[in-house]
Write a structure and sequence with these properties.
Layout: H1 15-18, E1 24-30, E2 33-39, E3 42-46, E4 51-55, H2 61-69, E5 71-76, H3 82-89, H4 98-101, E6 106-107, E7 116-117, E8 122-130, H5 134-137, E9 139-149, E10 159-163, E11 166-169
Antiparallel strand pairs: 1-2, 1-5, 3-4, 4-9, 5-8, 6-7, 8-9, 10-11
Amino acid sequence: MKALKKVDFPTWNVRRFLEPGPVVLVSSAHKGRRTIMTMGWHMIMEMQPSLIGCYIWDQNYSQQLVRGSKECVINLPTVELAETVVKIGNCHGNEVDKFNEFGLTAVEGEKVGAPLIAECYANFECKLIDTSLIRKYNLFVFEVVKAHVARSPRYPETLHYRGDGVFMISGENRSYRRLFRPEML
């Protein structure tokens, strides 16, 4: 492999290369209010139980609802919802009902009071289990208590934020099973 020529890059923008995974829609509800937020900052923290860390800015309306209810649903949209995902991120949930505004179907959760989004490929019902990092970092740690995933396609086309309003669509899949050592995961 050939060494790549590099240039200096602003450190404040390294997220362009390190965004952790697909953009998701986080739905929340509390005391008769509900909203949806677009989120790109999340990470798997543990597999058993399934723990997910999520950054929810303290100026985001969703943070109020999640802190009050101690639960949410992480919904995985596909490329078909790309424009809706961006538009959801461009408006405030305390000003508009995003389910109605964007024609999304709210489905009652089995384990949480927050609504699932029917049009998303997957829905992960979550309970807030660790609040110790919220005040300092706006980092919420959730446990997935129920998962709903569409039967097909096996590998959906998801959105990945690259910064500056640019998204990457998940691409071709390649198998490296012959090299893969599951015990190292």
